[in-house]
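User: Need the bound-state model for NDP:
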Amino acid sequence: MATHTVYKEPAPLIDRENPLESMMSRFNVAAEILGLDEETYNVLKTPDKQVIVHIPVTMDNGKVRVFEGYRVIHNTILGPSKGGIRYDKNVYLDEVKALAAWMTWKCAVVDIPYGGAKGGIICDPTTMSAGEIERMTRAYTLALKDVFGPDRDIPAPDMGTGPREMAWLMDEFSKTVGMTSSAVVTGKPLVMGGSLGRTEATGRGVMVSCLAAMVKLDMKIEETSVAIQGFGNVGSWTAKLMFDKGLKIKAVSDISGAYWNADGINIDEAIAYKNAHGGRLEGFTGAVPMDPDELLTSEVDVLVPAAVEDVITEHNAPYIKAKLIVEGANGPTAASADPIIYAKGISVVPDILANSGGVTVSYFEWVQNKQGFKWTAEMVTERADRIMSDAFEKVYQTSLKYNISLRIAAYVVAIDKVAQTYKFRGGF
Ligand code: NDP
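Assistant: Bound-state model below.
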């Protein structure tokens, strides 16, 4: 007989700020600047809905393990909620709530008709077989079949998930409604309705917003060096696209360690090495190993955190040498570091602007699925780049208008759009 265990093993989050508190402290500042009324403030500070599911999954050894999963819908006033699903052993509810709210702000900043959501399962996919991950993904989809829907709530990949998991989710959801429902999820494989340009979209948006900020700061491409933390989807595509533009990438890292080359790392070689070595940079000879903590304070002009939350803190912020930080990851800067960074005169292109290229092309994928028509790669890239540039300019102008950081300006733009929509729709 199968035995039942609940798999819940969050690793200790030493020195990490609560991402929900980080998000709220910025939200509060922006709400104050906007003079947001109390009713709208109260609506926006809490999620519309949060669902916790316990999913029994038969593991390869015949035992049944029960995983805890979440789906948080922060807000749907602008449209169906949109947000990724994270598989990680450190997933916890406050993190999912923060990530869901960031999705609301992100979609509002780039002016796409979506609300915000996020999901996650506490699990360690690196120790699970493909069969175990498939059974877990299908069970999670079934448990949330009344939450998901192409006009209701549209998941996407996040850390630990990719096109493979999205294909299983789409298939399982389609079975529950008795027809193929492509638009229920984005980030699907190309052959089953995925969009050209989606894989590189987030990294491309990071690159586009970085170049836009460099123009404002009068930084020249040929004189600019970069350090990138994280070499997964976002980090490696950001590195590749910046490298192709002529920026000098001096440092990259993944969980195996950090790697430094003062003359610049050949990113094509680094990606080829990673692909040939189980997805890791460990042993990469095109650079020398460096202390991973030192990457964040290394001698570079641009810093791109593209891995996890809360890596820039009040402890290391005083030592950052970059003049520009472009946030590829969600929430990489703890709120307590904001005043230090601002006082040092470092510009930050915040996560809700810098990494919104991903949700923008996810939106294009959903539009294509609904149209039943595939766009060319050029159409995707040209439209996404324009949306990113327009959003950057709007946030930049807002920062000048109120004399505030780009981060608070991005929240002001987003909250203003959501609040105005509430005013027009009314209905409390
Ligand atoms: P991936 O899982 O593809 O990559 C994460 C990368 O970070 C991996 O290289 C991983 O190393 C590395 N990493 C993890 N922990 C550390 C650490 N402590 N120090 C250095 N490197 C570390 O995730 P994504 O690239 O998709 O996501 C990265 C971030 O970007 C997340 O915050 C995500 O929410 C955000 N984001 C992603 C979007 C997307 O479209 N994918 C869209 C918007 C935001 P290893 O592989 O060795 O484990």
